[in-house]
Every structure is written in C-alpha cells, then in structure tokens.
Amino acid sequence: MLSYRHGFHAGNAGDVLKHAALAAALSLLTRKDRPLCYLESHAGAGRYDLAAARAQKTGEYRAGIGRLWDRADAPAALAPYLQAVRAENPDGVLRRYPGSPAVAATLLRPDDRLVLMELNANDGEALRAAFHHDHRVAVHRRDGYEGLVALVPPRERRGLALVDPSYEVESDYDDVVTAVAAAHARWPGGGYAIWYPLLEGGRAKRLERALAGTGLRRILCSELRVDRRDGPGMKGAGMLWVNPPYTLDVALRDLLPWLSRTLGEGSAGLHRLEWLVGE
After folding, report:
1. Mind telling me the catalytic residues?
2. Higher pLDDT, 58 or 90
3. Model-level pTM?
4. Structural domains of the chain, with CATH
C-alpha cells in the first residue's frame, strides 16, 4: 500500500522477529563460498531514524529493539542481528535502525548481490540514496509481487527472497502466496521468507493454510506473540519459510524463547516453531 510508512513502526517487536530471523538465515547461507542473491519485495526506505518525529510519535521501538540494545545475555543466534544494528550505531547509542536491506547489506559479502523493490516514490528515493555507493545493490521501483516473479532465477542460482508487505489491504494475504508459488516455479532452489503480522481475525492462519495448500514442500513456521490481550492492534508477528537454510530451525529454537521472554508484555510472550510441510 503506497500510503504505508514504516518509519512509524521501525524497530518494533515485529521488526525484531523479522530481522533477527533474517540475519540468522543469511549467516547460515554465507557459510558456503558460493555467491548468493538476496531479493526483497517491499524494501521500504532501508534505514530509519529513531529520533525522527514518526518513530517518536509511536515509540514502538522502545518495546522492541530498545529492550535488546543493552542486554548482555542474548543467545548466539541473535548475534548477526545485533551486529547489523550496531553497525548503524557505531558510537554505542541507539539512534538509527536498519531495515531489512541494511541488515542484509551488513551481513552479505562483496560477491553477493541485493535486489530491492519498492513502489512508494519517497521510500524508493530514500532507498536509492541509502545504497547508491554499494555496487552490490540494485533498486527497482516496481510492484514487489510482479518483480519477485520477473527477477528470478538470479544468476547466482542460490539465495533468499523476503516478501513483507504491509498487509494494509486484504488482498496482500493472497498475493504473497501467489507470488511465492510463481517465483518458486521459476526458482525452485531459492529460499523464501514471508513476514506477517499477528492480528485479530485469523488472517495469519488463512495465510498459513493457503501456502501449505500450494503443494510446496519444506515450509517452516516461526511466530512470536508479545501481547495476549484482546483488542485491536498487532499482537506479534510470524514468518513462513519455504526452503529455509539448513539448520535455521535449530537457530530459531534457541532464539524464539529468549525473544518471547524479553519482549513479551507482562510475561505474556509466546512463541511457536513448527514444520507445516516436510520434505
């Protein structure tokens, strides 16, 4: 949705799950010497100023990255994510937050490549400005669903695609499944990560059933619920993985319980990790 601006929500609990899991996945993929390609369908502005009016208006980052920043007991699986956040704040003061493109750019190697899609004109300009100096990065102003299908398979033949729309419109729940299934048909060896918010109304379960119903194999579900209270608003977030990196489930098994305890409101945190479809 072109009206959505992630600056209001940067660094919240949903971002923490997305970026911590993404960082863990990329750290596993980069263990092999061969280059890889990272694609993102809804890349946003790339980096966010937590002192800006948007972030300060909601203050959501305080209950997300703000709770992790000074912790000394984080599990090893969180280290790649914290490395990416600290790279944005080299003086040790939390002022800036990396979006998914910046997390990936920090962790990927010189021979790896990033393909970023963003339809919003303002965020697209910010994205180009943020990475204009990085030869590995290509920014496309185009519909992320269309672009995901059109731009695979990448020449590297290995890598990961992140699909993370705002879900402001109901059709996003169907569009992500359609796009991932179509991309997988063109690039069956690629990995796919779908981020989604946990909201009232059972939309997450609908997304889960639809993806499992495509016939795709190796689908892993990871969820973090930080608020069990009734009412509107996001209660947490989840990620569905198709062809996740080998042993990602092991890393998330260490990561999710700690995040649940650290980010849960009033000890209300819950987590879930299960294979929806096996080999």
Report:
1. 164
2. 90
3. 0.95
4. 6-277 (3.40.50.150)
